[in-house]
O-fucosyltransferase family protein
Amino acid sequence: MENIMTTLKELKKLIFSLKIRRKKSERNNTTTTIHLHGSNGFYIGLKLIFWRKRRRVFSFISAISGCLLLLLFSSVYFPPPTANNLFLPRHSSVRHVVNVREALEYNFEASGGNLGRDLWSWSQSTFYYGCSNASKTFQTANRKKLPDRYLLIATSGGLNQQRTGIIDAVVAAYILNATLVIPRLDQQSYWKDTSCFAEIFDVNWFISYLSRDVEIIKELPPKGGKAWIPRTIRVPRKCDPTCYETRVLPVLNRTQAVELTKFDYRLSNRLDTELQKLRCRVNYHALRFTDPILKMGKLLVERMKMKAKYFIALHLRFEPDMLAFSGCYYGGGDKERAELGAIRKRWKTLHASNPEKVRRNGKCPLTPEEVGLMLRALGFGSDVHIYVASGRMAALDYIVCDETDVFVANNNGNMARMLAGRRRYFGHKPTIRPNARKLYKLFLDRNNMTWEEFSSRVRTYQIGFMGEPNEMKPGKGEFHENPDSCLCQARGIETIEEKNRKDAVEMSDEYQSIEDPDWIDVDYLYKIEEVMSD
């Protein structure tokens, strides 16, 4: 007992000493903080945040020594925290699950895992770069375009879903040798956004950048001095070049102007390399937001950077419409089933939901709680700042999620796919998307294992889902998320971790096999019956 009392006195002195050093170090932009958390006694952790001043080596060594002493004392005299204390209990209502801040903060305080490498960048990313220039054999617009042939496009869905339509519209115009009229945005979707193309994207830049590929005009010119109505057509989903030449070209030749309606995912995912590179030129270079939107987005990024050197942007899709359409169950009992069931009745063609099967197949969005657990297991700590992207300000969210150090999504919707591809193209910036099929089983069994075992399994399951180079085989997944035709590797560079790469590719194949192209953003759901009737 005497030894214990002596040790306690020494610890008090140590803590007091550390507090004094902390106050002194704050003047030199160095902060040392001790956090004490209760869990079956004491769960003691030490958080160290050092800013730029490197000459305070003695303070750093002292803090580490104190940490070791504290951890040694707690491990000897107090039992370790149990697995049950490291996880949130199952919620009784879906509304509780939506408490993002509470869920993330709780789980970030738990003891985390460690990837054993830099969490904020990939060592091999500098060896890869985006390459989308046309080859010498690619015919330019002035040599290919036929006169008096106009293609109009009516996009569908939210901003990112419409983005895919705009990209494919340019390619479709090239296939048809037609002049493209600036696409008409969907103003009747779930979001009820009345913006036109020129209010979101820099229309003049769009036209000039693609002038060598496709002739683009702002509006359909009058015919015989009068306005004319183009013929409307809806092509099948995933229509390939031959399909366009068979279904659209004869009508275009006859009427001179054709409008393709509900133009989302109406072009084949697999095209020849030159057409895929054209997709990349449109997506990553020609489609640029207007200056006011860009300035506001940059300001948001700067504000996040002011808080910390690095930050995470989390695209969290957890609206009732999304949950209802997915057919998933989140533990809210009869009240949740009744509320989501009522919303689900809006889509009469949907089959009866099988929540267990849907979750087992990895098609349920992760809850905020599960996202927090995943990130903590990967090694992100409680000092991480998170920008939550979820709402109608899709353009601003897109900019912040593109510029963030690490992008995380709890779903595999349009925005997640588009940003995954963009971040690959511009340097393979870390992009974390959950391996939902594997994590589902792990979350079910999470209270029956230690935190160390849980975090180790999360890190294993996430191989192939982190945005690293060569994570996916060429041709796998949607082209917008894996633009392999537009990714080049520096010559003479051999990548490392070949075993991990092989594992990643195998797991990525499994991930692609469970994808459902129709399970996309909530704005698309309101027109699902129309899609299913195609």
Observations:
- The longest helix spans residues 2-26.
